[in-house]
From TrEMBL:
It comes from Flavivirga eckloniae. It comes from the Bacteria. The keyword Transmembrane applies. This is DUF3649 domain-containing protein. The chain crosses the membrane at residues 20-41, 47-68, 75-93. Keywords: Membrane, Transmembrane, Transmembrane helix.
Length: 103
């Protein structure tokens, strides 16, 4: 049984925006989220060890969310805003709570 045409995205650019924000943006959001957790929480080793599974789960969620929206550009803008905010959190976390390196 084919899908109902009224629920499908007709514009190729909206489809491209949804795919790009879902695949690439979802992964960047998941990775930045775990980097921020590692910088701001006291047990950064535990966060980094469990981030392999956590990144995959968060990435799957953020990969599916754009397809619930009708407008792909709005989702891409929201994902870019989240990426910008998480980048600021990681930047200031790296300044105030740097992870010590082994030398």
């Amino acid at each position: 049984m084919p899908a109902n045409q009224k629920y499908l995205t007709h514009s190729g650019w909206h489809r491209f925006a949804k795919l790009l924000s879902g695949i690439l943006g979802g992964y960047i959001i998941a990775a930045l989220f775990h980097m921020a957790l590692a910088l701001w929480l006291p047990g950064h080793k535990n966060v980094l060890i469990t981030s392999a599974y956590g990144i995959f789960i968060i990435w799957c969620v953020f990969m599916l969310l754009p397809f619930l929206s009708k407008n792909g550009w709005k989702v891409m803008f929201i994902y870019m805003a989240i990426i910008f905010l998480l980048s600021l959190v990681v930047y200031y976390g790296n300044i105030h709570h740097p992870i010590p390196t082994l030398r």
